[in-house]
Amino acid sequence: MKKILLLGALFAVNLWAVNDIEVKNALVKQTPPHAKNSAIFLTIFNNTDKDIALIGVKSDISEASELHT
User: CA neighbours within 13 Å on the CB side: how many for 47?
Assistant: First the structure.
């Protein structure tokens, strides 16, 4: 569970580091012990007049990451 929380925190921090991108309502689902997956929910705001595309997601602590929009 700690790894998943860390993943969520690092993901959100990386997005906050980008100019004009805002992350709100980040939430990590708590999983039962020994669960093999979890989910992170968040809302990303583009505060510019330019189009910005989120084209993927990756993690250094999991074998697979998926992006559902």
Answer: 10
Locus of tokens 């700690």: 2
For residues 44 and 23, give the distance between their C-alpha atoms in angstroms, rounded to a whole number: 5
- Amino acid identity for residue 25 in this structure: N
Give backbone dihedrals phi and psi of 8, rounded to 5 degrees, phi first. -60, -40
Task: Tell me the mean pLDDT in the region 1-19.
Answer: 54
Is the model's pTM score more than 0.85? Answer: no
How far apart CA 44 and CA 54 sit, in angstroms, is 10
DSSP strands (E only) in 1-69: 21-28, 40-46
